[in-house]
Design the sequence.
């Protein structure tokens, strides 16, 4: 199933534009699709390295995301597990809509892929889709999130309580803003490296950046090869 966001195009789609793609922002009947976490609010907990996701992007720098295990524990655990496996390294932002969001997390780059882990049950909450919110993409079914996620450029409050917000950008939003637009973009941005702050993974080296930006057929393998040449440990297997 293809993971896409309808977002602001929902009204247009209802007016007569049908598609075979299933979309993570399919808002029809969304209010009845899953439970809302009682008492979840927008209050953000103190910084915690174990619950801070770092994305080193090909757009020029590091994005720090504060994760919310208090609201979406299973989604946070999934993101950290995949980051520590190296799953996200080299993956493109395959669907980027100006004024809306940038979506990534699909190793096929088509919007139809995911990890080999089972899909997650929804953990909808009252955390709002404000600028910099990080939320899980899914198909029409509420319990279909797997590995894909999106970062909002602008508030998208129509998605609230219908998609699992599991974090928010706390620094480096300028590197998210610089992600090229398109579905997919002609020259998509990539996650060079994803890591958990507690693991103290340094920013990417010139060799890692070059492995991604020169158009390697398998960027993730190219990154690992660049690290091996420098005597650095590779990521553990998935």
Sequence:
């Amino acid at each position: 199933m293809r993971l896409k966001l309808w977002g602001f195009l929902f009204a247009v789609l209802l007016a007569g534009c049908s598609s075979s793609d299933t979309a993570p922002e399919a808002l029809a009947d969304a209010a009845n699709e899953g439970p809302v976490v009682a008492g979840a609010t927008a209050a953000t907990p103190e910084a915690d390295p174990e619950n801070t996701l770092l994305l080193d992007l090909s757009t020029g720098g590091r994005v720090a995301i504060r994760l919310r295990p208090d609201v979406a524990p299973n989604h946070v655990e999934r993101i950290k597990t995949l980051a520590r496996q190296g799953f996200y390294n080299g993956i493109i932002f395959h669907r980027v809509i100006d004024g809306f969001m940038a979506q990534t997390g699909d190793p096929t780059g088509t919007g139809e892929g995911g990890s080999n882990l089972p899909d997650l049950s929804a953990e909808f909450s009252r955390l709002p889709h404000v600028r910099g919110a990080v939320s899980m993409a899914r198909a029409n079914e509420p319990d279909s999130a797997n590995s894909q996620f999106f970062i909002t450029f602008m508030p998208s409050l129509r998605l609230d309580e219908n998609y699992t917000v599991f974090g928010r950008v706390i620094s480096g939003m300028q590197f998210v803003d610089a992600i090229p637009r398109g579905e997919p973009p002609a020259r998509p941005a990539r996650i060079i490296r994803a890591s958990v702050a507690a693991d103290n993974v340094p920013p990417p080296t010139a060799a890692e950046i070059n492995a991604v930006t020169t158009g390697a057929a398998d960027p993730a393998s190219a990154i690992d090869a660049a690290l091996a040449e420098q005597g650095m440990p590779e990521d553990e297997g998935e």
